[in-house]
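Q: Joint fold for the lines below.
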Amino acid sequence: MIQFFHVAKSFPGGQQALDDVTFSILKGEFSFLTGASGAGKTTLLRLIYRGEVPSAGRILVNGRNVSSLPRRKIPYLRRTIGVVFQNFRLIDRKTVFENVSYLLRILGEDREEQRRLAFQALERVGLAHRANAFPPQLSGGEQQRVAIARAVIQQPDILIADEPTGNLDPDLSWEIVRLFLDINRRGTTVLLATHDRAMIERVGGRVLTLDAGRLVADERVIGAAPPEPLPSPESTGSAEVAGQAGSEVAP
Amino acid sequence: MTFRRALAYFFREAVVSLARSWKVSFVAVTTIGVSLFVGGVFLVVGENLARVAEQAREDVRVVVYFEPDAGEEQMASVARTAERMPWVRATAVVTAEQARERFVEIFPGLGELLERDAEALPPSLEIGVRPDAAPSEGYQSWLERLRDTPLVSTVDDDQEWISQLGAAVAVVRGLGLALGAILLAAAVFTIGSVIRLTAYLYEEEITIMRLVGATEFFIRGPFYAEGLLQGLIGGAVAAGGLWLAFRSVATRLTGSLLGALTLVEAPSVEDLALLVALGTAAGLVGAVVSLRGESLGEPPVDEI
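A: Joint structure:
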């Protein structure tokens, strides 16, 4: 699903963000990406959705070499990848519904379909009742849930999240992580970047650790208190993935 | 997404943006409106002058003014000689009395001027000439002979002032074209700047659009629509302003020579449509040019 082969990334000033990074994430996996600030987490995530081009190496996403993807095809790659940011990145002048349904509008879905899928996504994150609110009227946790609803509305193959709990208190962070796990249980590959080690140890799962741009560990951590599934999840035939997070023993 | 739906989205977004940043939009619309209005004024005046020149060309005359003591037989003799020339269509003797009646008919309030000077309007011979007479061989020497004829005081040839009018039309048109082009370029630049400014204001939003997979067409479309709308409104303002200005000035100039020369006919629907079309095109061009080469909303590269 996501494959990095000896990927390096340096910026024009000579700053080395990533150095010889190689790993592979399988379809339906839930993985954490961790490391100190400046370790290269954001750069790695941006390379996946072609926010950056690697200086060396090869990156395959869904079998496509994203490094050599023509510029005009980047939007089509991004439609298969949901992205969630620490600072939510919602459009303040648009309602929650409009923010969430934006991708559907780009895709030319009719209004009824937009409504149906947007409300479905908002229900999954428990915010259907705030569909007509504007982002500034919501709390940080609610805004992040809207961002997640937007990211998953088209049931992307991959969901990547860059410090999605960085601006939230621990209780809200826990709720957000439960949402990601729920999304993963439905079949979406999730890569969640965080420097919150306590969170990783509580949830458990595969953990990729970056240090100064190098991948220094790729391990499985047993979760101390893996979360219960969210109430009334819709079974979508991804049972083989369900329960995977936190249930495996580190190699 | 179908093209029709995309267009509907572009224009909806453009209207929202116009309303949000109405102050800068107002500046852009005003600039293009003023530019096209000025160009339109020259267009209308130039068209009317050209029309007057064309009408005059169709009815070219040589008027031979006689001394007050010239007799009818003298004038008839000159007329008979003139009628033998191949470029002469017709001749008509106008006595001093007929000339006076004509003047009073055209300028009813100025009749008393003639009472002070009884010889102000001398008898004359009006000779209708074919429009293509001027280049004819012998035409100029015929005029010279007329001028040298006894009891002839002056010979006026319409061709002279018609050619001067033709030159004036060319100057007005050239000036209008040059001024219009300069102002239009300024308007295109203004609209371009406003659109670029708007694009910067929406940069964060555009970044988000890119992240969810919006194409360049989808990202730039609303800005192009906004430029087009600004130009369209500016063009409509110019067309409306020109029409109103014509109505207002035409009413005041009725009966005057200036009015007769420059405001014979109102701006045509085609003229007004041309202004609107030019404005629309200028707005669209301004938007497209201003965003060309701009990598709108590319994600920032300072995070590692």
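Q: Anything notable?
A: The CA atoms of residues 185 and 242 of chain A lie 4 Å apart. The radius of gyration of chain A is 18 Å.
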